[in-house]
Every structure is written in structure tokens, then in C-alpha cells.
Specification:
The protein has 239 residues and is mostly helical. It is built from nine helices and five strands, in the order E-E-H-E-H-H-E-E-H-H-H-H-H-H. Keywords: DNA-binding, Transcription, Transcription regulation.
Length: 239
């Protein structure tokens, strides 16, 4: 695996930071995934290889390798002789994928309530408090990363390999949409209330209740995303 060293440059016209020190392939994938999730690279946008190479400070080989990984994750589409574009889900795909994800999250919660360790529960509670601090600072990216870490830890605590693999595959396709679902302050605050309910159910080892909370949590995310999808003005931030 190739190692490299770059420094972040300021004043990039696109606002995309250069890739910094770390293993090249993994870092490029991580950077592009983050830009897609946070909407810097929005659905349907064509990915210009030359511009991305210049702004990220890399050659085309690692960029194309990263494209293949992201295409396998469903985050970008690659068409022969047309290049790569950020994937755009249809309304039907959004509805059905969130519906499936709600079931996966619910099953994760039911199993996790039975199998989670005290150490894992303490880690989830620490992430929750860090998430609250991000909300107080109106830090959506920081909030989102901790939010997703909580869901991920619950899934890990379920200790079911087949569920884990399916969960990760489906969740990658929804990450950008889950990020956007918090653009409205009321939705953001409601999500925090639901996370507090999740932790209470985990502490009480109430798998049925936790499953119901997680299922409804994802369906509410779906409804918020569908509103934004049909009327982008609804997604404006309430800063």
C-alpha cells in the first residue's frame, strides 16, 4: 500500500480540502465518501477526474481505485465512456431502502438488548453525550458522525455476522440521506429525544421496546428525507 504526504491547502476554488497524510487508497475513499455524505458532492453531479486530482493532490490511479470502491457501495455510478457521477436514488428506492433499514435497525436493537456488555453500553452513552455537545454547538457533521457511531455500536452489539454485513451494505446507501434528514431543527431535536429513549431501553434490556423505537426512528428519517426530496426548500437549514 502506497504511503504519501500532502499538506492541506487553503483557498481551493471548490472548497474541497487536499488529502492529508495517511494511506493513500483508504484516505481517498474516506474523503470522497465524506464529501458525498455531507452534500459537498451532491446527487447527480459528474465527478471530474482532473479537477478532483488537482484539489485532492493525487494522481488518477488512486482516484479511480476509490471510484470502484464507492461504486460497489452504491454511492457513485460509473458508466462506460461517460465517467462517474454521484448516485441519485429514486423516490421508490428511498422509500423501500429506508423501509428495509428500519427492519434491520429494529432487529439489531432486539438482539443488542440481550447481548450488549456494560462496557459497550458505557461507550454508547459517552457517544450520546458527545452528540449532545455537537448539537449545542450546531455542529451537524460532528453530531452525525457520533449519531451513526451509536447506531453502528448497537448493530455490533447484536453479535450477528450476517446481520452486520447486510446492515453495513444498506446503510452506506442511506448515509447522505440520513445526514440531510437533520437539516431541520425540529427533526434534529426529535432525533435526540429518540436516542435518549434508545439508551433507556438498552439499560433496561428491553429489546422489544428498543426495536420499536429504532424502527420508528428510521421511518421518521424516511419521511423527513421524502419531504426534502420532493421539495428541496424544506431542507434549508434553520441556523
Amino acid at each position: 500500500m502506497q504511503n504519501f504526504e500532502e499538506t492541506t491547502t487553503e483557498g481551493s476554488a471548490s472548497g474541497i480540502p487536499r488529502v492529508e497524510r495517511l494511506r493513500l487508497h483508504d484516505t481517498v475513499v474516506e474523503h470522497l465518501r465524506k464529501l458525498i455524505i455531507e452534500g459537498v458532492l451532491s446527487p447527480g453531479v459528474k465527478l471530474n477526474e482532473r479537477e478532483l486530482c488537482e484539489t485532492l493532490g493525487i494522481s488518477r490511479t488512486p482516484l479511480r481505485e476509490a471510484f470502484k470502491v464507492l461504486a460497489a457501495e452504491g454511492l457513485i455510478d460509473i458508466a462506460p465512456n461517460r465517467g462517474a457521477t454521484v448516485a441519485r436514488m429514486t423516490e421508490k428506492e428511498i422509500w423501500e431502502t429506508f423501509e428495509l433499514m428500519s427492519a434491520l435497525e429494529a432487529f439489531s436493537g432486539e438482539l443488542a438488548a440481550q447481548r450488549i456488555t456494560p462496557v459497550e453500553l458505557a461507550e454508547i452513552k459517552a457517544l450520546h453525550y458527545a452528540m449532545l455537545a455537537c448539537r449545542a454547538q450546531n455542529d451537524l457533521p460532528g453530531y452525525y458522525s457520533r449519531n451513526q457511531a451509536i447506531h453502528d455500536r448497537i448493530n455490533e452489539a447484536a453479535r450477528n455476522g450476517a446481520l452486520r454485513q447486510t446492515y453495513m451494505s444498506i446503510n452506506r446507501r442511506l448515509m447522505a440521506l440520513r445526514f440531510r434528514s437533520n437539516f431541520r431543527t425540529d427533526k434534529w431535536d426529535r432525533a435526540i429525544e429518540e436516542h435518549e429513549e434508545m439508551i433507556d431501553a438498552l439499560e433496561k434490556r428491553d429489546g422489544k421496546r428498543l426495536g420499536e423505537i429504532l424502527r420508528q426512528h428510521l421511518l421518521e428519517k424516511r419521511d423527513a428525507v421524502m419531504q426534502i426530496h420532493t421539495d428541496p426548500l424544506i431542507g434549508a437549514r434553520n441556523d
